Amino acid sequence: MMPCAASGRVLLALLTLSLGCAAEELLCACDVPHCSQPNCTGKVCFVSKRREEGAITQHRGCFSQNILEHCHTPVTEQYGMRCCRFHMCNAQLEIFLQGEDALVKTPSLPNLLLMIFVPLLSLLVLVALTALFCWKLAQHRHKHSDFGDTDLMLKASMVGDSTLEDLLSDDCTTGSGSGLPFLVQRTVARQITLMECVGKGRYGEVWRGVWHGESVAVKIFSSRDEQSWFRETEIYNTVLLRHDNILGFIASDMTSRNSSTQLWLITHYHENGSLYDYLQRTALDVETCLGLASSIICGLVHLHVEIFGTQGKPAIAHRDLKSRNILVKSNRQCCIADLGLAVMHSQGSDYLDIGNNPRVGTKRYMAPEVLSEQIRTDCFESYKKTDIWAYGLVLWEITRRTVVNGIVEEYRPPFFDAVPSDPSFEDMKKVVCVDQQTPVIPNRLFSDSVLSALAKIMKECWYQSPSARLTALRIKKTLKKLNNSVEKPKPEQ
């Protein structure tokens, strides 16, 4: 008895539902003569078709009453109607009079031949054009190496006979960015032998590796800093960054070693290490000090300035500039490294690409507006100004290690006398924002014209108001004038 009762209740519910639906006003397509709008409302939507004197007319509309007898009218050669009961259901509804559907579905022999041969002929023409295009493309690739798959395979198989200089000078770009083709990058990475660990930090490790007798630097990222690896890989492979004062990128690879995934970034190797390491062990003369300062600002200008054209680049702000992220080359020029936190901006699209890295910059080098959380994160200029603050601190580190009148001080990091060795965010915020302190500039610097000029630049990098700080381009021009004033005149040829 229970199943029958349940079935009865379900049937009653369905009947009630259908009656409710039937009673609902429906929106229908309407093109009958009395319709002033393309739609009408009623209880039932319909399509009707009539043949008169050989001509067929079709109309769509609605009934204000649920007139079922009209809907059930049999379709004849002269007249037919179909009904439906949901919104706009008659818009696509079709009806065929007796004999009409047969005419439609059974085309004549000439029409049938056309229906078969026209698509077939079109297909043959398309195949012929495709074959011609492929042949032309193959001819073009044969004459001009265009980094097709075959060329990549060939280059990857021949990298053992090349040097890094050959690869980077010949194929330093895939057309849009500065990276080698990905297949070549992976091949280079798998041919590197790690020799010695030359640095460790929260980011991971840096190793000196050897590739066919040449030293390279291999930065192995920790798993918690994988976003930095992704960001650097993205920037180096999409932006033309070849510059004397930007660390040279060679390859990036995700590889499996010791049953774990390792993220590698392979760059040029500089045996002097970071500026931080170099300053620990090296006292500078004024000329070297000026050379280091000038080369860093040249690299920063290259990052900050947008270059237009096919070989252009967006503007880039570093966001983590510090002495540990600057390397010293054998010619005592610097190059800027670590673009894991960089942001990019193009004036044309006005799109600010801040990446997807949860990592923040180094607290010791943070500008006041970052520490106070007042920085305008939607404005690219704001990020450039934080780089200038950090550059001023790096300049202080360099000048402090410069010998003046036989006097030089031991290396110390910025704010060494105001915060602990590993300062917290709150430590830095109190010193920089609340107390508004800046590093103390040694008095002895003012006895030298060059170092005095550098001290003035530092102060103009440390204004609390970001808009008052110098731009990288202005600093570069000032240092160029300074360089020209101290250079010895060259003998005439």
UniProtKB/TrEMBL annotation:
Residues noted as binding ATP in the record, renumbered to the chain: 219
Domain GS: 162-191
Annotated TM spans: 112-135
Domain of life assignment: Eukaryota
One protein family per Pfam: PK_Tyr_Ser-Thr
Nucleotide-binding keyword on record: yes
Family recorded in the similarity comment: Belongs to the protein kinase superfamily. TKL Ser/Thr protein kinase family. TGFB receptor subfamily.
Parts forming coiled coils: none
Membrane topology recorded in Swiss-Prot or TrEMBL: Single-pass type I membrane protein
Subcellular location, principal: membrane
Domain Protein kinase per the UniProt entry, residue ranges: 192-482
Known EC number: 2.7.11.30
Reaction(s) catalysed by this chain's protein: L-seryl-[receptor-protein] + ATP = O-phospho-L-seryl-[receptor-protein] + ADP + H(+); L-threonyl-[receptor-protein] + ATP = O-phospho-L-threonyl-[receptor-protein] + ADP + H(+)
Protein name: receptor protein serine/threonine kinase
Gene Ontology BP term (one): transforming growth factor beta receptor signaling pathway
Cofactors (names): Mn(2+); Mg(2+)
RNA-binding listed as a keyword: no
GO MF, one example: ATP binding
Residues annotated as signal peptide: 1-23
